[in-house]
Amino acid sequence: MYSKQEGDKFGLKSFPDPLADHATKCSKSYGLTYAKAIESQWGSIDDEASLYRRRLKEFERNRDYANGTQDTSVYKQILTSLDPNAGDGSLLNIDWRPVPIVPKFVNIVVNKILSRKPYPNLEAVDPLSQTQKDGKKNYIKAAIKQKPLLEEAKQLGLDIEVEPDQLPDTPEEVEIFMDSFIKTDAEVAAQLATEMTLEWNDFNDSIYRRCVEDLVNVGLAVTKRENDPNYGITEKYVDPISFIHSFTEDPNMNDIMYCGYVRKMTIQELKRIAGDQFTEDEYKKIAMTVRNRYGNSSSKLDSRYYDKNIQRYSYGYDEYTIEVLDFEYKSTDEVFFEDKETRFGNRGFYYKGYSYKEPKNSVYERKPSCMNIETLWGGKYIIGTDKLFDYGMKMNVPRNVHDISKCRFSFSFSSVNLRRMIPKSMTGQVIGFADMLQITHLKLQQSIAKAKPDGLIIDVEGLENVQLGKGGELQPLEIQDIYEQTGVFYYRSKNPEGGFQNPPVREIGNSIRNINELIGLYNHYLRMIRDSTGINEVMDGTSPKGEQLVGVRQQAMQAGNNAIYGIENASMILYKKVCQDIVRALQILPPKSVVYQAYEKAIGKTNMKVVSSFRDLPMYNFGVLVSKEMDDVDKAYLEQNIQVSLSQKELDIEDAINIRNLKDVNQAERLLIVRRKKRMKALQEQAAANSQAQAQANVQSIQAKSQADAQMQQLKNQGEAQLEQLKAQLEAQRMQMRHEMEKELKAMELQMAQMKMQQDQQFREGLEMKKDDRKDKRVAKQAVEQSKLISQRQGKREELSEREEDILDILTQE
Question: Any idea where the domains of the chain sit in the sequence?
Answer without folding.
Answer: 454-510, 665-765
